Amino acid sequence: MRVRPRFFDHPExxxxxxxxxxxxxxxxxxxxxxxxxRLDLLQPDTLRTxxxxxxxxxxxxxxxxxxxxxxxxxxxxxPALLDVVHALIEEHRGxxxxxxxxxxxxxKRSGVDxxxxxxxxxxxxxxxxxxxxxxxxxxxxxxxxMLPVVVEAPAPAEVLASxxxxxxxxxxxxxxxxxxxxxxxxxxEAVSFSHAQVLNIANVARECQIERTTVAAYIQIxxxxxxAFHVPVFKRxxxxxxxxxxxxxYFDAGAFRSLRPKGPLDSPSEIDGGAxxxxxxxxxxxxxxxxxxxxxxxxxxxxxxxxxxxxxxGEAGFWAIEVKxxxxxxxxxxRSLRAFHEDYPECRPVLVYRGEDSLRIHDxxxxxxxxxxxxxxxxxxxxx
Length: 384
Hints:
With 384 residues, this protein is α/β, with parallel strands linked by helices. It is built from 15 helices and 14 strands. It has two domains: 109 residues, 3-Layer(aba) Sandwich (Rossmann fold), CATH 3.40.50; 247 residues, no CATH class. The model has no long low-confidence stretch (mean pLDDT 90).
């Protein structure tokens, strides 16, 4: 896979690097640490050896000079190795461990807390528009997403079509995470209708005809596999009654589109709108994670129906961002933003849309989506 410069800046010491399959973790660490000892736990013989004899890791590391870097790729396949890594770090011989993972599920049950304070936690996201430079194309990003393994493929659409199958086969099925793979497959399609929407578990359960508790467990599996995330509602000093439920997103616009069923009753603009909002959401998450600003991502929705897609709030700033899949800006498009600005005059209201002109209408900045995304650079203000 092509190696592009990424905005991710690694720590000096040992660290975990989490991200869904295909975000380029293996490619990045091999390029960044080309002389390191690398152990790929996706290789059956390596995995089998280290599961049978975790102490083998100690033997391999002790053959390395002090201060060497050791890469453990997809380490969640053998959580018991964390005890060995912890002990090796405690030897104070300067070894640096880089542990990549595409699932946090096993780690929640396997004593990963023993590593607290010994290794930092970092995330690798799909490409940001600014990482692609002149190769970024908004219509293409909305169709196939920003996942490196897809973007760099000779046939991106074919790779994207097989991506969900990869997870069903290699992660969900092989790890025995669900009892009924057919139910889970129907769930993946049913929950795609909740992408960029307030999540209603009961509705999803009814749609795919499985128990509500099972749907809740499946959603947790998606989040543990880093395939989905939720955005909570903004409630600070609320002057109006707000909803309590989070919004749901697949981690990548292309992944959402590949799982979303399409038919005569499905409006292309509705699917495009969800993909556009998801694309902005994944960029905002990456901007926060990579740049380290003390910010969190929220949305705002009142019980009366007013909604702003994203609220970015923290010491670094306060922004309200509405996303519209339209080439023109109407007054009605600004209504919720202006309502939020009335309640929170400290915020900077922004409308991101599919037009070509940068506008200011009343107190709202209106920016073309491609301009907004390509200007997002970690470590720099959200807006100039």
